[in-house]
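Morning. Coffee machine broken again, so started the prediction first thing and wrote up yesterday's gels while waiting. Chain of 480 residues, entered below exactly as on the submission form.
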Amino acid sequence: MKLKQILIRKLLPSLFILLCFSPVHSATYEKPRVFVLTDIENEPDDAMSMVRFLVYANQYDIEGLSATTSIHQQHEVATWRIREIVEAYGKVRDNLEKHEKGFPSGEYVKSCITEGLPEYGMHAVGEGKDSPASERLIKMTDKDDPRPLWVTVWGGPNVLAQALWKVRKTRTKEELDKFVAKLRVYTISDQDDSGPWIRKEFPNLFYIASPGYHAGGAYHHATWSGISGDYFHARCDGADFSLVTNEWLDENIRKKGPLGKEYPRWEFLMEGDTPSFLNLINNGLSSPEHPDWGGWGGRYEFYTPRMQKWFPYPETRPFWTDACDEVKGIDERWHDGNHETIWRWRKAYQNDFAARMDWTIKDYKHANHPPVAKISSEMQITAKKGDKIKLSAAGSTDPDGDSLSYKWFCYNEAGSFTTAKGKTGQPVKIYDNNKPNAWFTVPSRRFMPPGTGTMHIILQVTDNGTPCLTRYQRVIVNVE
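Came back before lunch.
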């Protein structure tokens, strides 16, 4: 292993601890900026994801919606389909605004629609290959805004590749480095040959991916397929499949107004592209700059993956890629894998989607709204082994006056203080873990060297509305 990679792996956890306990990290939510690249109409799932993306449109600032190609749709782009769904969004936008503020107008979202070249992969990269999408992506990245730009890639990323190619060709190295530093990329596997090229040519680019091509079996193994995988697709044998069937979607999504009508029936999987933006939703759980902390869109760790048969060639540098969580399934058995990092939250994100679709057609008093999870105790704690840690969520509320239920648990994989697991799969016992006030003792035995690091304690608050909705908060304990 190269010395540089060894140093990255050893220093990264310490770097994140410094970030967690520095003034830079705070509970204040800052809207992400998002630029979507989609091979919409290659199959139904992109249109499905677009519907969900738009009912959360107040959770981020949309900077671009661009139709692209992919391995599945190599010589055409379906910009018209984005326009159809955005048109439906415009019809329900005012009703959404009754429930939460900040939804952009339909006209604004229309102004964000562009398209890439109708060419496959690297054939659309190089001299004379600029497109309205690649030019807008450069413009939005250059925008005088301190926030990074999240590029969520649902198909092939050749629009991003062309933008990077042009900036590298026309700017100084310092200007290129500044441009790359503003980007955050989450791709849904490799759907053309430009994704591996980007990772190789721009080694400092923040990149989340389960790499590889579908032809080699990559989709079965990819983290994102945990969004809706069944016994065949992703083999999510511990997940609740009833929440991702076409029947559930008919009842909870498709029958609800103009936007629901734009949500097609799936052929292979529900919304394979949705994980790319789920961690950008402000639910109290996700921290987009820390993919290893986990959230509705999955959890990822920073390393160079070993060669797999579905890779076009060996990876050359570390990036954010597949990680494993241990989760108890609906069968009451423990399951361990990368799909679990997403399906463990399935009930919460599906109920949340169903509630938002209600917002498109109902007034405020006839719909449910998420609770407000609040930590009354410290959210960042420095402790030693054997210390008793008190937790309090006594300030949590619900806007509809619904009663609340509580769950405290240790998200062991998200932290760096690792203990030997017991029979329950939890590294530490939290007393009164179903009450607003709980406590635990920092383990003083059965821990892995060096015996220091972070523990992530998650508060999960759920209301009893219809559908029941969940929000979170995270306590980080730095064990010295």
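The longest strand covers residues 453-463. Going to sketch it on the whiteboard this afternoon.
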